[in-house]
Amino acid sequence: MSVSRTLVHRRRIELLxxxxxxxxxxxxxxxxxxKDHDYPLASGLRRAGEPVHDMWVRxxxxxxxxxxxxxxxxxxxxxxxxxxxxxxxxxRIVGLNLLRGFxxxxxxxxxxxxxxxxLTELLSxxxxxxxQTFASEMDDTEGLDPGRKPFQLDRCHALDTGSDTVxxxxxxxxxxxx
Length: 178
Hints:
Elements: E1 9-19, E2 25-35, E3 39-41, E4 44-46, E5 51-61, E6 67-76, H1 102-110, H2 117-123, H3 126-135, H4 164-169
Antiparallel strand pairs: 1-2, 2-5, 3-4, 5-6
């Protein structure tokens, strides 16, 4: 059965992983919200196609996934003078590790009125984007250091070291029952 639909909202989230010349990596995330119709807000009319939200966050990380530097920018918001004032607070992620409690710590640091829901949402995507960025740098059957368990193992259902998938593709690291 076919039902007519009208597009009224478009959210784009883009994640980019950059290898830097100094041995570090930049992981960037950008969120853009656009309405396909004129959108009345308390702060004024937002014309169709004009971003309601346009913001980004960047974490510079080392090979161990430690955040060395961070920056955020908020370029379009529904409530100017309010929403756009929180970006500098996101520099507080410096010192965190993307793979060790990052999402929980970010939720505690920036949850509800302590941060911007949209920037905080973007931060939650950084760990997996970093893993995918690093994946380009290595043979996926070895970790960052040869002889060390590949970092993707035991990080999702399919790659549980007791799974058939690991038995088949990573037999050296298989810990299931045979």
